[in-house]
Write a structure and sequence with these properties.
The protein has helices at 30-37, 94-103, 119-125, 200-206, 214-228, 249-258, 276-282, 311-329; strands spanning 2-8, 20-27, 47-50, 56-58, 62-69, 74-79, 83-89, 128-129, 132-133, 138-145, 151-155, 180-190, 246-247, 264-266, 272-274, 289-290, 293-295, 303-305, 338-340. The chain is of the alpha+beta class and 341 residues long. The relative contact order is 0.13.
Length: 341
């Protein structure tokens, strides 16, 4: 177990912000986590469980406890003729899990390759890409309640998954609203893969092609992401800053009349999902530099810390984008990134 006071989070947020936390606690087992949770001193503190910090924007230093899991391991807990159930420690890097699945020819998460972050955080966020979301393969999520100290195992339905949301995610880092710390995630992968290739760039790359392999899909996803998204190790960023907004069919019809090229996708509830990057680009932000913050010139959804920006500066640029899109299109952009005050 690691417990540090006034700990720098520079290496635990992909915006590369030099913020600190009052306490930093790192554990590699559920037993160690239980010991921390039962400590009376720390029960009164604000808490923030994190993975790699690839979806966080620290506005200020964090006056509380940051928890980080080092729980590792990938274990088959059940196997049938058609599927395997893989139990994964929350501290496993997500892309290592995707690579492991593809190497064993288990389908279901190949479209989620090369997404930064750890497995526990991926389950909290319900990560998604190219027509696939993590909820599509979730079997159970194991988590500890910070208030009762009890461990629970949640089925996919009990996780209350939505678009980039779950019962484990709160917009405010308040343990009374966001009490769970994920320790293990079990996913169901298929031995008879059904490929999802109808979305965006994957459709273009594989249209008309036969005998496609999981490895080819993974390689294509990695290549596309590298082409569109800056490497966080080189340029501070959190990937897509905003979620793709959904609108009612009537609003979409009006937008389509005014902007015939506006891209949109059907949702399960009959609404239309718009491409946030396209909206931002139409407002003139793509490639624009504002102070020490740049809007990526290949994908307008990405805000880049050029080296000396703080959380306030990045948040201000996001606010400018939000206002511009609202004024031009009447559409509200919601951050995918979680603000930490």
């Amino acid at each position: 177990m690691k417990i540090e006071e006034n700990f720098s989070l520079l290496n635990y947020n992909t915006f590369h912000l030099p913020v600190k936390t009052r306490w930093f606690m790192e554990y590699d087992s559920e037993e160690e986590l239980e010991r921390i949770l039962h400590d009376e001193y720390f029960q009164e503190c604000r808490t923030l469980p994190i993975g790699c910090g690839s979806n966080l924007l620290f506005i200020n230093n964090f006056d509380g406890i940051v928890f980080h899991s080092l729980i590792k391991g990938m274990e088959i807990t059940k196997e049938t003729d058609d599927a395997v159930y893989l139990r994964i420690g929350a501290g496993e890097l997500w892309d290592d899990v995707a690579a492991y699945a593809v190497s064993n020819n288990w389908g279901g998460i190949e479209n989620l390759s090369y997404i930064p972050g750890e497995t526990g955080a991926a389950a909290v966020q319900n990560i998604g890409a190219y027509g696939v979301e993590l909820k599509d393969v979730i079997d159970t999520v194991e988590a500890y309640n910070q208030l009762s100290f009890e461990k629970s195992s949640f089925t996919k339905e009990e996780c209350l998954y939505g678009y980039r949301s779950s019962r484990f995610k709160s917009e405010i880092d308040d343990p009374y609203k966001d009490p769970y710390i994920v320790t293990y995630v079990t996913i169901k992968l298929t031995k008879k893969p059904v490929y999802t290739l109808h979305y965006g760039e994957l459709k273009k790359r594989f249209e008309g092609q036969q005998d496609i392999s999981l490895q080819e899909i993974r390689d294509a996803v990695i290549q596309i992401r590298k082409e569109k998204l800056p490497d966080p190790a080189e340029w501070g960023n959190a990937g897509s800053f905003f979620m793709n907004p959904t609108v009612e069919p009537e609003q979409y019809a009006l937008l389509k009349q005014q902007y015939p090229d506006i891209p949109a996708y059907d949702t399960e509830d009959g609404k239309k999902k718009l491409a946030a990057g396209w909206l931002i680009e139409q407002c003139g932000f793509k490639g624009k530099t504002i102070g020490k913050v740049k809007v990526h010139d290949k994908q307008a959804l990405v805000l880049i810390n050029l080296g000396e920006a703080d959380g306030h500066a990045i948040g201000d640029v996001a606010d400018d984008i939000h206002t511009a899109v609202k004024e031009q299109f009447g559409v509200l952009l919601i951050p995918e990134v979680k603000y930490i005050q």
